[in-house]
Amino acid sequence: MNPGLSSEALRKLAVDGYFGRVVARDMDGLMGNISPDATMAIPPLAIAFKGKEAIAAHFQEFLESYAPIDIDDFQTTADPENGTVAVRFHIALTSVADGSRTDMHNCNFFHCDAAGQIEKIVIYMSDLPTEGFAAGATRQKDHGER
């Protein structure tokens, strides 16, 4: 049980504190919302990022790989009792390398701690871009679905 955040606070943390900071390229703000021992798993790519440093390395590479990054059409479901929020959204990535555009409809699942920081992120993507996903990544066997 996680009585720390209301449904609205969980939604705001995910949509504004995470996605909004990615779009704004605000690394300090984004990482301020991530707990020190956070994990991020991307089961379709069979990769994970363990700890704030690895997640920061990933986002630095990701932001360098795509410009612009557009994220919209958010649909959220929050569970304040367990400190979780699920977000379905549209994301458009434009590759810095070749200008190609990738449009996806993805789902992210966030687990938050009582202090209001994100401690676990699980990402499912409708396409499998690999640019921007090497830094800080480790291969995973369990796909982070536990």
UniProtKB/TrEMBL annotation:
Q: Which Pfam families match?
A: SnoaL_2
Q: In this protein, which residues make up the domain named SnoaL-like?
A: 16-118
What's the name of the protein? SnoaL-like domain-containing protein
What phylogenetic lineage does the species belong to?
Bacteria, Pseudomonadati, Pseudomonadota, Alphaproteobacteria, Sphingomonadales
